[in-house]
Amino acid sequence: MSMLRLENVSLRYAPGDGRSQAPLVLDRINLDITGDDFVVVIGRSGSGKTSLLNLAAGFLTPSSGRIALDGQTLSGPGSDRAVVFQDDALYPWLTAIENVAFPLRLRGVGRDQRLKEARALLEHVGLPDAADRKVWELSGGMRQRVGIARALASHPRFLLMDEPLGALDALTRVRMQGFLLDMWQASRAGALLITHSIDEALMLATRVIVLNANPGRIARVIPVNFARDYLAGVPQSELRASAEFRRLHDGLTGLIHSEDEGVAA
Amino acid sequence: MTLSMETASIDNEPTGETDTGRPARPRPVLWISAATVVAVVGLWGLVSFYALVPPLFLPSPLAVLRALRGLATTGFVDATLVQHVAASLSRIFGALAAALILGVPAGLAIGTSRWGKGILDPIVEFLRPLPPLAYLPLVIIWLGIGEASKIAVIALAILPPIILSTASGVKSASADHINAARAFGATRRQLLVHVILPGALPSILTGTRIALGAGWSTLVAAELVAATRGLGFMIQSAAQFLVTDIVIAGIVVIALVAFLFEVVARSVERRLVPWSNRR
């Protein structure tokens, strides 16, 4: 089982622009993510949650502390961790299917094989007919589904997602939540997802991490079970209606909201 | 009302983007432009018909048409019009190929590496503001009066816009595009070939289109100085014999070719980088 471990990770913005101390973005974050986990990080804007994901992806290097994958300190991005971006980051010069096949192409997989795998993935994300379309012709929601299919194509050990459903309409969003869980289970990859939606956090996570802002600090870790219940066959609507879901939803709202007021005052 | 008319006229500038699928409201401007052309040619015809200017200075439009037909069939100074045009075109496309082969990698180097930028920037900035005719004599001393010197001068003239547009295209590459590929384990070379270069393509094509225009004017000037064939040479020899109708016919052909370059370049852009105006 793979393990992505953040040990006492702090991040400062690049120092040395005249100020005595560069602002602290993330403060001593400790977090373990295994291939079993679906970790959702939630927090106000400015809590450094996107920075946290960029650290895990290897796009940023911690100012102090250590990030290790299976005991091996990260040296940068790698195909063991696929990233789904807030803005889909698809390549407009490629068709939808070529975008999905892109990670396989980088790895030298032959054209027929990679297009076959990409076509299967497009069917999984519900876009069997979009294969040969230009990505700039697709709606924002369709583009994001192509982006998720592309991330899965590299068979990553960890799936890092930065508000991947943020651009989708409410109905598609609910459907995609279920889809993400199905894919997460099938891929056996650990997941780290950033969101500002409490509903999404509760539906997707096995663990919700609440980040405080200024500096970003882990305020609370909440184990959640709705995702596993969903995968065991309980419909989402039933989970949402449960007393437990409402209790946690209210609790999280209070936690994030109270900090808001604290900052405003 | 005023506002909408202004918008229409901007949309319909001859160099403007095509508006796909929108109903063609801007047509009036096209009509006005056509009317302008007819008026200018008509005025020209009247001036020569009433012999207000001697034909030696301004031959009639008909005389120029006849000269064009003569050029096309019997030719002028040992070559037909097609041969003159072909000579000019082969020079400009030879130079364009050379400039792309040198300029795109140079632009990539400037856009991706501090060393590349440090080394190449002063060279490009030295070359860019120089009028090509200023270094034409030097190039002739170095390379002689053959094809090589003409191609070299044009290539030098169009190199800076190609280098600079490539560099700016590279610098404007989306961070997400690059990060996505890095996360998929792209090597530096793969990043360059699969992400940075295609991302810079719209900018490179725009630079090439501008360079082609600059190159064409340089070419004609270079042919005025030293050539035995080509449109610039044709005009120059005709002028020496005071064959004004051929001079004017040559100018018209030069303008037509330049216009065709623009049309072809724009359709290439639409075909190769259809996304570039959308996001």
TrEMBL record, chain A:
Belongs to the ABC transporter superfamily. GO terms for molecular function: ATP binding; ATP hydrolysis activity. SMART domains: AAA (SM00382). It comes from Ensifer oleiphilus. The keyword Zinc-finger does not apply. This is ABC transporter ATP-binding protein. Transmembrane segments: none annotated. The keyword S-adenosyl-L-methionine does not apply. Residues 4-238 form the ABC transporter domain. Keywords: ATP-binding, Cell inner membrane, Cell membrane, Membrane, Nucleotide-binding, Translocase, Transport.
Automatic annotation (TrEMBL), chain B:
Its main location: membrane. It is a multi-pass membrane protein. Residues 1-18 have a biased composition (Polar residues). PROSITE patterns: ABC_TM1. InterPro entries: MetI-like (IPR000515), MetI-like_sf (IPR035906). Pfam families: BPD_transp_1. Keywords: Cell membrane, Membrane, Transmembrane, Transmembrane helix, Transport. SUPFAM superfamilies: MetI-like. Residues 85-265 form the ABC transmembrane type-1 domain. The keyword Cell wall biogenesis/degradation does not apply. The chain crosses the membrane at residues 29-53, 92-111, 123-145, 151-170, 191-212, 238-261. The keyword Lipid biosynthesis does not apply. It is found in: Cell membrane. GO terms for cellular component: plasma membrane. Residues 1-23 are annotated as: Disordered. One of its GO terms (biological process) is alkanesulfonate transmembrane transport. Belongs to the binding-protein-dependent transport system permease family. Probably part of an ABC transporter complex. Probably responsible for the translocation of the substrate across the membrane. This is ABC transporter permease subunit. It comes from Ensifer oleiphilus. The lineage of its organism: Bacteria, Pseudomonadati, Pseudomonadota, Alphaproteobacteria, Hyphomicrobiales.
